[in-house]
Amino acid sequence: MSSGGSHYRPPLADIAFVMERWIDAPEDWKRMARYESLDAESARMVADAAGLFCADTLSPINSAGDLQGCTLEGGKVTTPDGFREAYRAYTEAGWTALACDPEVGGQGLPQLLDAMLNEMIVSGNHAWAMYLGILHGAYACLYAHASESLKATYLPHLVSGNWLATMCLTEPQAGSDLGLLRAQAKPQDDGSFRIDGNKIFISGGEQDLTENNVHLVLARLPDAPPGTKGISLFLVPKLIPQSDGSFEPNAVFCDGIERKMGIKGSATCAMRFENAQGWLIGEPHRGLAAMFIMMNSARLHVGLQGLGHAEMAYQLALAYAQERQQMLAQPRPAGATGKADAIIHHAPMRRILMDLRVWTEGMRALGYWAGHVLDLAEHAPDAQERASQQALAALLTPVIKSFFTERGFELASEALQVFGGYGYVHEYRIEQIVRDSRIAMIYEGTNQIQALDLLQRKVLTGRGDGLAPLVEVFRQEAALAAQCPAAQAFGQALGQWSERLQIATQVLAQDAQADAELPARAAEDYLRLVGTIAMAFAWCRAARVADDEVHARKRDSAQYFFDHVLVDAEHWLRKVQAARHAIPAIR
């Protein structure tokens, strides 16, 4: 049995559908001065070029890079064969500058297109993608908070991709609780600082793709108050640029690389800062505020990793199911021939493949929409619209990061089942996707942290109506679907679930007043409930805007979602309601 279908094929038709029909982005671009010259044809050209790079350059080195992994010798990391050449091609094509401000050398294109690019990169090669995963977030952080001197020195190199960046948060004793970090920063007479401390799990902390690495490091000043209120952010380069154009090595060292379950082509480093020179970004003791822009960008991109894995898993499973011959399906389906049928004709396989399809395409709509919401939050012409879109983005970010990465892993596991025993063999690629996809549920804030962020910090604040901006979008779509015969039933279901979600949220807010732990018990299932209803919104809109024969397949998928998948919402609602019962102590 061959391992056919092993290379990535960019889903360009669905990408165009989402951008042009589902979001109708070209119409919004006309309203934004930054993007008014961008049209659908230009966006398609960007997608075509990105897809070609990911399919022809990244995907072919993915499996071999997983087997080869990274090596560390003398403090220097060597990445897998082909990784350096791929990165050179990526920067020469200008991809790192895609969504950056033209004033600093960027192309000034929307974050929607950056979301599209990130999905396809991860589908092609997740491990390679890790080296540039924080690059745009670091650019945004410096652009918003760094001094003019630091911007002039570092931004052009980051925008061009000439240098890469890392985010150095985690320490051995301080994971999700950054208030426990111990790295120290001592002020110097020249305005710089000396950084001492150890950081772990630093993706690309050392690499051979670029000459310089710009580390963004959280540390404490001598007068720092305890906890997260005493954390500052510093720029600490591997090589310090000198006035004569030369570079001075900084006291930044890679002490080891992790041997991991997946993304083995990504160097996950233990870093040591030993009296290293750095510069403050933003205000003292306000490091988390300075990092906020970077974290939002990173969490959206991590959510899109779940989408990228789901897309690749679907492609592999579909290709295998079309090829693999097995016993006769019973009863005989239309199109089945011969003494054995391709397993795509068997009901259990069709169910798995349809699950993969509707989740993948629904997540693409929601993920790209989140990127577009970020564009509107920054560039919409009206201040009130910018504020409302920012509120929506704050709700979407934790849902997309947590829900998409969880589904990406689960869908990859489901896809492996299509292959039977072959799925457990490296040659068929799917086992690597299962391994690679698992990490996305952990880094950039664990999925449990995301759930708490959504429910405790955003939904239940104030009067407990923090989810209102998202529920209102669901209601508006349900009302529009009521005017479309092909989507009326879907709109009715969406409207009903929007009301049930609002009621469940109100009950949670009321009960939480007497039970402080209730939000923590309910948070994960509440996020899954919100995510499932958001998928219903995605498919209701897809059915409504799929108004020709070319997109008839979309309505088939919408029908499948509302018949077979939306029932999950009932399960998650029951789980949220069950959270009112306390969890016993572990004895």
Task: Tell me the layout of helices and strands.
Blueprint: H1 12-22, H2 25-31, H3 40-58, H4 62-68, E1 71-73, E2 76-78, H5 83-92, H6 111-129, H7 135-145, H8 148-160, E3 164-168, E4 184-187, E5 193-203, E6 213-219, E7 232-237, E8 239-241, E9 247-249, E10 252-257, E11 268-281, H9 287-323, E12 325-326, E13 341-342, H10 347-379, H11 383-418, H12 430-438, H13 447-459, H14 468-481, H15 488-512, H16 518-545, H17 552-565, H18 567-578
Parallel strand pairs: 3-6
Antiparallel strand pairs: 1-2, 4-5, 5-11, 6-7, 7-11, 8-9, 10-11, 12-13
Helix pairs in contact: 1-3, 1-10, 3-6, 4-6, 6-9, 6-10, 7-8, 7-9, 9-10, 9-11, 9-12, 10-11, 10-16, 10-17, 11-12, 11-13, 11-16, 13-16, 14-15, 14-16, 15-16, 15-18, 16-17, 16-18
- Beta-strand portion reads 5-15%
Number of helices: 18
Given the C-alpha coordinates, what overall shape results? globular
Per DSSP E runs of 2 or more residues, the count of β-strands stands at 13
The CA-CA distance between the termini, in Å, is: 51 Å
Low-confidence stretches: 1-5
Share of residues in helices: 40-55%
- Rg over alpha carbons: 24 Å
The major β-sheet equals: 7 strands, mixed
Mean pLDDT: 94
Q: Would you tell me the structural class of the helices and strands?
A: alpha+beta
